[in-house]
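During the no-cost extension, the postdoctoral fellow (Dr. R.K.) reprocessed legacy sequence entries with the updated structure-token encoder. One reprocessed record is reproduced below for audit purposes.
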Amino acid sequence: MKKIISIGLAVVVFITLTACTGATKIAASTIAIDVNPSVVLELDEDDKVIDVILNNKDAEIIVGDMDLIRVDYNIAINALIGSMVANGYINELTNSVLLSISSDNEVREDELMAELSQAVNDVLTGNQIDGSVIVQDLEFEEDAEELAELLGISEAKAELILDIIEADPRMTVEELAELSINDLNLLLEAKNIALDNVEKIGSASELGIITVEEAYQAALTELEIDELTVVELEIELEQEDGVMVYEVEIETDTEEYEILIDAKEGTVFVDLDEDEDDDEDDDDFPVDALTEQEVLNVIATELGLDILLITELEIEQEVDNGVAYYEVEFEYNGEEYEIEIDASSGEIYTNSMDEEGFDFDDEDDEDDELDDEEETEEETEEETE
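Re-encoded structure tokens follow.
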């Protein structure tokens, strides 16, 4: 069970609006659609809509005077996505859609996930939008429901946020709740995070944020640095206090600089060299943390590397939101690695070289997967016989 991390915000009254009344049947399946408008469709056993739930004011605009009751689910989905496009909620700048699906029939749930992700992608393609569809199980967990009510977001978005926090506890639910679905999608890609039970089609649009080069030039201007004096540079897309930012680290022959640039506005978000809170975090690194050698051993074991072949090694101590971790950079067989690893548990948060996204499975999960594979092979052999 996932835990909600220190929520210090005032309680926000979250009102769920029902678009259509009179629904008396028990839902066999539930489909939640989140962009910023958040709409939930409840279906009967024949996949007909029996209820439409609007989670915010934007959803009211999307549904308008549409009567979706007793309409086939795929027609309803097409109508809703089309309305989101027509009303400007989905476009080239914000192309991400979160689909959250639950069904009392596990097979049907898998079918709905595949059918709907493709259907939504087809609608976006038909509107000349290169879309990105995130599909997840809708689990109706109690902590997600509480978080949704507290922060005024949909339960589906709350579940996605809690999954992200579980993968990387350095972020907080309050921060992530401020981000749009497209921003969350960008963050997952930037941090190379792959979540369990979450599938994705396409990539989040970067057209709504400035380029890495633009962020670099903004940093140079603010810090009054001559580009010719720069000897080392690192730029990463991050989030800070619910705002998408570029973290720019610049090193010259004489100085080191770190600054955050607002990824949408192109303005300075904060100069970390002048940020007292950041300095205070550095003092909180635990005395009982793993040593640098122990961290290196964990990385070598997890990634199957020979420590003797690691070169250009740099290890830095960092603390974000009370979570201490190491930033580890090195070269191995001509490839550059950037890895962030928990200073206490040795859990790897991000791995730049994992093209599929680091999935954070523990040993128990891996054992379960092996058992499932063995069972599948046995069933296949029996069918062949």
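The radius of gyration is 23 Å. The first strand starts at residue 17 and ends at 18. The remaining legacy entries will be reprocessed before the final report is submitted.
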